[in-house]
Specification:
The protein has eleven helices and nine strands. The strands form two sheets. The chain has a seven-stranded mixed sheet with strand order 1-3-2-4-5-7-9, sandwiched between helices. A two-stranded parallel sheet has the order 6-8. The N and C termini lie close together (7 Å).
């Protein structure tokens, strides 16, 4: 956890980095020697593709049993591989406007059990995730934590533009439209006197975006220090260069698969961390496995408490929320 007041780490200064050489060096150090291992670092072990760990899994799309299942897979392929720059979604919005239809909401609400009205939960997805898959992840979060969840969609522009965008975000820190939506929604929840806890889950590129949002909130004097302490952030496969605060927040934890290629660009980039060119605060909980998909490789691991601290213990604060539970009074992040 960040102390109440501290000086920002010298290694975190963007001006001190030669950005492009830094990005190239981190990528070089992250890659496995085997091309097959690089593939496994994203999709997991190839032998597991035919046996998803849960019906919420992204891999379950490959198990087509119904016409709706085929349509979902086709929609994903079109969004992520065939139509660049979010063209399908943009055309849908334009046609909707022309026909006078109601526009899709910028935030997606997933219901949960009642009794958590004093909490606000948010989720932001990573690259190559269309609206359907982001909503599916939100439903999985609601199922295992029993809370209502607001999904802040990080709309895919298709795979290559997504990768270029996250590289720019990692190296040059622009605030995207998704970041602006997240900043507005999370900031409003923090300022709400009836909300006692704001929990944010962020995967992959979503973690990079939330890192920028955290920086903005940390410097936003409209958000008091006491309100900022209500904020808890949990990242998964985090490729960020920077995630830190000057003021204290409630919790900051990271979950990473040791052989996740994307996590090796950020939270597991040990050489860059030692050089001071990557600065990510908070404990890291690790599982010794391949894979970067949120539902299949991360959220299922949280549900089964697979991620362990350096002592080999399942001590993450996030586990205290499983099945609708709440952390014991006074329990803080490690």
């Amino acid at each position: 956890m960040a102390p109440a007041e501290k000086q920002a780490s010298p290694g975190a200064s963007r001006e001190q980095l030669a950005v492009l050489p830094h990005l190239v060096r981190v990528l070089y150090e992250a890659l496995f020697w085997s091309p097959l291992d690089n593939l496994r670092g994203i999709v997991g072990r190839l032998r597991d593709l035919g046996r998803p760990s849960t019906t919420w899994s992204e891999l379950y799309m490959l198990h087509i049993r119904t016409w709706s299942g085929f349509r979902r897979l086709l929609s994903f392929v079109v969004d992520v591989f065939l139509l660049p720059f979010g063209l399908r979604r943009r055309l849908r919005v334009l046609f909707g406007q022309a026909l006078g239809r109601e526009q899709p909401p910028p935030l997606l609400r997933v219901p949960g059990l009642s009794g958590y009205e004093d909490e606000s939960w948010f989720y932001m997805n990573g690259v190559a995730t269309n609206e359907t898959m982001a909503l599916e992840s939100g439903r999985y979060i609601a199922a295992i934590f029993r809370r209502p969840v607001t999904v802040i969609p990080n709309f895919t522009r298709s795979l290559l533009p997504d990768l270029l965008q996250v590289t720019a975000q990692k190296g040059y820190a622009p605030m995207t439209g998704a970041g602006a939506r997240a900043l507005a929604a999370i900031g409003a929840a923090l300022r709400d006197p009836n909300c006692g806890r704001v929990v944010v889950l962020a995967h992959s590129q979503g973690a990079v975006v939330i890192g920028r949002v955290l920086l903005a909130l940390d410097h936003d004097r409209l958000v008091s220090s006491s309100n900022l302490e209500k904020l808890e952030i949990y990242t998964f496969g985090n490729p960020s260069d920077l995630m830190s605060t000057v003021r204290r927040i409630g919790a900051l934890e990271h979950f990473a698969n040791r052989r996740d290629l994307v996590a090796r660009l950020g939270v597991l980039a040990q050489r860059s961390i030692e050089r001071g060119s990557i600065h990510i605060e908070g404990p890291v909980y690790i599982a010794d496995r391949y894979g970067h998909f949120f539902n299949e490789h991360y959220l299922h691991g949280v549900e089964t408490r697979t991620f362990l601290d350096p002592r080999g213990l399942a001590s993450a604060r996030l586990y205290s929320y499983l099945n609708g539970a709440v952390p014991a009074p006074g329990r803080d992040a490690a």
